Amino acid sequence: xxxxxxxxxxxxxxxxxxxxxxxxxxxxxxxxxxxxxxxxxxxxxxxxxxxxxxxxxxxxxxxxxxxxxxxxxxxxxxxxxxxxxxxxxxxxxxxxxxxxxxxxxxxxxxxxxxxxxxxxxxxxxxxxxxxxxxxxxxxxxxxxxxxxxxxxxxxxxxxxxxxxxxxxxxxxxxxxxxxxxxxxxxxxxxxxxxxxxxxxxxxxxxxxxxxxxxxxxxxxxxxxxxxxxxxxxxxxxxxxxxxxxxxxxxxxxxxxxxxxxxxxxxxxxxxxxxxxxxxxxxxxxxxxxxxxxxxxxxxxxxxxxxxxxxxxxxxxxxxxxxxxxxxxxxxxxxxxxxxxxxxxxxxxxxxxxxxxxxxxxxxxxxxxxxx
Amino acid sequence: xxxxxxxxxxxxxxxxxxxxxxxxxxxxxxxxxxxxxxxxxxxxxxxxxxxxxxxxxxxxxxxxxxxxxxxxxxxxxxxxxxxxxxxxxxxxxxxxxxxxxxxxxxxxxxxxxxxxxxxxxxxxxxxxxxxxxxxxxxxxxxxxxxxxxxxxxxxxxxxxxxxxxxxxxxxxxxxxxxxxxxxxxxxxxxxxxxxxxxxxxxxxxxxxxxxxxxxxxxxxxxxxxxxxxxxxxxxxxxxxxxxxxxxxxxxxxxxxxxxxxxxxxxxxxxxxxxxxxxxxxxxxxxxxxxxxxxxxxxxxxxxxxxxxxxxxxxxxxxxxxxxxxxxxxxxxxxxxxxxxxxxxxxxxxxxxxxxxxxxxxxxxxxxxxxxxxxxxxxxxxxxxxxxxxxxxxxxxxxxxxxxxxxxxxxxxxxxxxxxxxxxxxxxxxxxxxxxxxxxxxxxxxxxxxxxxxxxxxxxxxxxxxxxxxxxxxxxxxxxxxxx
Lengths: 371, 483
What we know:
CATH architecture of the largest domain in chain B: 2-Layer Sandwich
CATH class of the largest domain in chain B: Alpha Beta
Largest sheet of chain A: 5 strands, antiparallel
Strand content of chain B: 15-25%
Oligomer: heterodimer
Distance between the termini of chain B: 27 Å
Structural class of chain A: alpha+beta
């Protein structure tokens, strides 16, 4: 099924005889077996773009690349820097903006500019009964009624199928710089990143690549400001060693695209896990994980791990203030849940919401992630 | 504005309910003295008042849980209250409800500078959160005008904004986790000391739910390093149109000021008379503030000056000193007080796309004339969040009703322009019956389903947010089921 309009999609869901697999571009998970696929990719196109109001309204099936090109033509961008995880997950397909929203996919700039959900101003979606729902709007400040926009962000198509999303967009900066520190162990690297993120120099990325032995800090803005802040930041971090400052736009962009897309883990055997936690607790947990490889983003608040197939990382790490999620499994049927278990009271609320938005239980019951 | 009639069965059980609350909670937690209850009869939306059945002021999450579980068992509605600064009547009681205030829960539980977060009890005031981390060079970004008094619990309930959210976002963008007590007493932890979580974003839907889904007792908040410096520029224009166009051009140029504030002539005159800020005599005024090191501020202000000059400003004054910055902001920050000297007023909160500013301002002026009332405008222009102030005389028969009718018309204009009813104050009771202007029945139904899940008996702050007619069946059904 590939409806071309919201009305067709609503009809398809009303008429659906049983479960469907909702898909955007299919870049975040392999096609599920056996279920009819409901693609939202046909509902596409930019509905409204007002650069002077920093507002973009776009149909959910629009390819991400098309959105990014339209913004770039006006010197703007999606501040949350959506990652391209095809290389990491071994998937193909064309990422859609609706899939990005349904996965709340956010890149390194999360630490400064917020997540995808923070940039979402409004949504339209069709719930599991085929009812069309609008929530939020196209203005930056809006507290009119409940914020179902946040509820839909990252909901992976379990409550409904997104058809349209309004985003707050931001100016693309005139310049960017990357500061590289070398030879720090993980704990020192996290300390350096925390120090950097605690300065007023508006660090927009803080990542540590243990295998390369490099720690990266990004600064963006007007050229003069970037030069000033990069210099001051290097001074502040002097106790962590000398910082190499790269200001070539293409090289900075390429380096951070690699971090965003977790390039160091591409094409390597093993299971891929993602930890969301307090940065300062990350080095200890990574040491405990016994991973083949690790990458720290968000100042250490996000850690990507490559571990031996079938490792039950949650069991190995024990309880901690955060979450471990498996994104790529060598054997998805090995009995290890992708998502961490929820506390009973939270699970009850989640189940209650799903029961009301999708009473027949036809939407993405396996929580297949549609992007 | 109507509130549902109190349930006589609850009023009849008053003594028993109070006795049970007293037995379950420490001494001094339950208030039922009529004089003391009067302090809780309204919030900052003072046009409507009603003392509650009782007030409870717990000190811990466990006490909140005990109070809610008991009210749940008794079928008593609960109205949560932060500091009572809501401009929308979010904490307005009914005679059959228990007000649950978090004002005694003010502790800082944890300060974690390395991970840039604090964990506080939710009754702590907004400004006291910043104060707790200021010495270390950090601050909590959302800055509603009431920040000296308003509680974090209320900020979360209303998803409060402030003047600086163009750059830093509103409460939801700065909230990492919350300890929440559901109406039946269940305690849940949503989010946590990390930047994202799997599962549905329940924290995201809780924030801004106006105390209808749960009572927040603790919050984990993101804190940010303080900027090196900040400085405003004052720009006067001969027309609202020129000021509106200048706002769009500044944003378009890639500058992201921390604040762009807009005042029209009636507001400028009132503020100048009140605060002597040295504002120019003009039709429209922008205060644009930028942050950074001294040289960065100079460069940004120079660029903003260049852009402004394309719109023939009648005045353009960069602040040159702390004292001058203070005076420029004093005028703006005393706007509501200054307007209060002119008479009674209703403060609206509609938000519109920035591009619609000049047209909507013209339309407001036409409507004001038609209704025979004066309207002054002061607002956060960078994000389109307007605050039209409708001046009226509460002692003149019929003027309040006329002012409310004008307010409703103005909000309809905001919605028609692609905006919304409320940008930061919340719906409460004030705009409850206008919700149908913005949302179709299916949209409201989807929101009410969320309440069905969190509060199946519809006991928590029940007669707010949704038009009474839209929520009537649910409220009655839940009550019948409880009886």
